[in-house]
Amino acid sequence: MTTYIIIGAILVVLLSGLRIAQEYQRGVVFRLGRYSGLRGPGLFWIIPLRIERAVIIDIRTKTVSAEQQETITRDSVTIKVNAVLWYRITDAAKSVIAVADAAHAVYQLALTSLRNIIGQHDLDEVLQERDKINGLLRENIAGSTTRWGVEVERFEMKDVELPEAMQQVMAMQAEAIREKRARIIKAEAELEASEKLSAASAQMAGNPAALELRRMQMVAEVGAENNSTTVLMIPSDFVTLSKSLSEYLQELAVTKSKPKT
Predict the structure, then answer these.
(1) 62-162 under CATH 3.40.50.720, yes or no
(2) What SS3 state is found at 162?
(3) How far apart are CA 28 and CA 259, in angstroms?
(4) More confident residue, 227 or 141
(5) How high is the pLDDT of residue 252?
(6) CB-count exposure of residue 87 (10 Å: 0-12, 13-18, 19+)
(7) DSSP state, residue 56
(8) Which three-class secondary structure state does DSSP give residue 46?
(9) What is each CA distance from 97 to 40, 56, 86, 108, 150, in whole angstroms?
(10) 34 vs 171, higher pLDDT
(11) How many Å apart are CA 37 and CA 27, to the nearest integer?
């Protein structure tokens, strides 16, 4: 009976050393406090009785939403920035041996880098050159995280919150720019129209028949509209000629009405 008990105890002790690591996990094994190697994925065995100890590490990509950071740009504008960090552990052993709590270390490094990079750029650059700043953020933290066995895949700004007063100023600036563009376009259109009209008047001046045809065309266009009043453009020469003709006819009528002596 004693033999069975001893054998059973040994089996229990041996079975207590079994460990299972999922496909996305790795086991970092320490033997008597010293690094022994990696185990997994799948079923593996370690020496029980705390002679060997396994630390299970998740090597999947992790997504961390950075808390809102209030920082000052190079041109002294206070803004609030939200960012998102994607990272994964590439060397499970380094992530345990080289740094205590790799996830916390990467997160704090990302926040510090975000504040530093924003402080080196003006507000316009932060708003318009996000891709450039995101690249600088990744480069700034890549060197430190590599020796921790961590790879930063992406680190990007998600949102930039401006003070209300600054938003009003930027809205006024954008409105002024749009008004400036509209005035420039209108001036260019008037210039082009004046050039065309000048060329047309020069051509008509050399050909009176063309001017008369244009006048008749305008009369036809006005008459085509359903207006109650039609305006006819008559040259002043026609008015003078009709007046002279009327006076001549009156004089002729008076002459004929006088009795002959």
Answers:
(1) no
(2) coil
(3) 142
(4) 141
(5) 74
(6) buried
(7) E
(8) coil
(9) 18, 13, 22, 18, 12
(10) 34
(11) 8
Alpha helices by DSSP H, listed for the chain, are 2-15, 92-97, 102-119, 123-128, 130-146, 164-205, 208-224, 236-257
Closest C-alpha to 45, from 27, 25, 32: 27
Looking up tokens 């998102």, which residue turns up? 84
| Side chain identity at residue 143, one-letter code | G
- Which one, of 170, 211, 195, lies nearest residue 79 by Cα? 170
Q: Which strands, in side-by-side order, build the sheet including 150-161?
A: 62-72, 78-89, 150-161
Inter-residue contact 114 to 160 (CB < 8 Å): no
- DSSP-derived letter for residue 126 is H
Which pTM value belongs to this model? 0.63
CB 62 within 8 Å of CB 88: yes
Q: Residues of 5-38 as b/e, b for ≥16 C-beta within 10 angstroms? A: eeeeeeeeeeeeeebebeeebbbbbbeeeeebeb
